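Run: sequence + beta-L-fucopyranose -> complex structure.
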Amino acid sequence: METIDRRLAKIVPSQRQFVFQQTEFYAFIHFTVNTFTGKEWGDGKEKPEIFYPQALNAEQWVNAVKSAGMKGLILTCKHHDGFCLWPSQYTAHSVAASPYREGRGDIVQEVAEACRKGRIKFGVYLSPWDRNHPSYGTGQAYNDYFVNQLTELLTGYGEVFAVWFDGACGEGANGKRQAYDWNRYYQVIRKLQPNACINVCGPDIRWCGNEGGNTRESEWSVVPRRARDTEKIAENSQQGDNIEFRCRKMRASDRDLGSRAMLEGEKELIWYPAEVNTSIRPGWFYHQEEDGQVKSLEELFDIYLRSVGGNASFLLNIPPDKNGLIHPNDEARLKELGTLIQSAFSHNLLGQGKAAVDCWKPGHGIQSAFSDSYESWFQTPEHKASCEITINFPQTTPVTFVVLKEYILDSQRIERFSIWNEGHELLYRGTTVGYKKIVSLPQKPQVRTLRICIEDSRVYPTLAFLGIY
Ligand code: FUL
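>> structure
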């Protein structure tokens, strides 16, 4: 029988997931009638006349996003209130009925174009829960409506890198019950935008399980197939479907989704990497009273290190204000964050040192991990699940970060590693690496020698990149 570690090490990303994971850090933009009412969830009864951002400038959004080092943007084209930021031909509840650009505006278009111009990726959020459309709750008619809207978004605005499906539904036990035809939605997306990932209520990218920027100690991309259903709980519990049972009580927030012990006995396994989403302010939408509550630089950098540097991608929400602009406080913070990230990782000290390893597969020596690309990678011989990498510096050097990246095209394998100095002093002990692990050494140890011990892995470990900063 095949051993569990061999079975797990066969699970690899699809091409679209692999490309997506390299996006690392990208923006969420929450913007709708809520921006004008001050609410977080609109009820669908808002008058389109209230939607009037008089200075909207999508290029300002894109510039702010780029200044933080983000490589994509996902726009709430329709939030739970049902108001569409594009002139959908399937509803009157849209920008077309608002005073914005005298009813001739199309914010999806403006944002998609600004992204293209700024060379970042563009993605769409389309809320399945719709509190405005009369067909919501009727079954097929709403699914048709939803597919029509998806089709508009996926055919009218160029390449889309992500379709973000929110699991939220606040109808409650006595509210409307809509059976979403997920498989039909997925088929439409695959057909119209085959390179797009479907996030959260979708098969490609997994919600990390909280909205506070919390991350797991050990983040695995190889998880049980049933992890795909956790975000459909809100919808299914409304329909009396016993998904709790089907999911064997698995939740997106569970601490362990992918250790060997957890996966033992799981019939179906999938590659399903995590995404951490949080807002730069307390709310998802802009509220003037939160102008003084923009997350601090330290907090944002910390979330970045734990998400992008913890085998997850980071989706950071920045809500434009009533004028249709990103507030100067948020704008300034994004720029600071970008500068900090850039300076933290600008100078790889590995170049000054001499690296050696105690074993390697021919053609995959440690120097194969020196350049940050997937063209070459380090690998131990097939039967060795551990190895020891030693880096000697010509003089004592302060080290703040160690960056490790697995060659994930060959799965996620490392289970345990540690970092030591020349005095056999333990500097760090960790578990998973995955797409990227940023080890923070806030005490900035002065080292002459750094030893990285990969202590255990699934069959054999790989490294696509090793960096020391
Ligand atoms: C939640 C929604 O209810 C919030 O309004 C927001 O869009 C967040 C990203 O997802 O489920």
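>> summary
The pocket of beta-L-fucopyranose is lined by residues 40, 166, 168, 277, 284 (CB under 6 Å). DSSP finds twelve helices and 20 strands in the chain.
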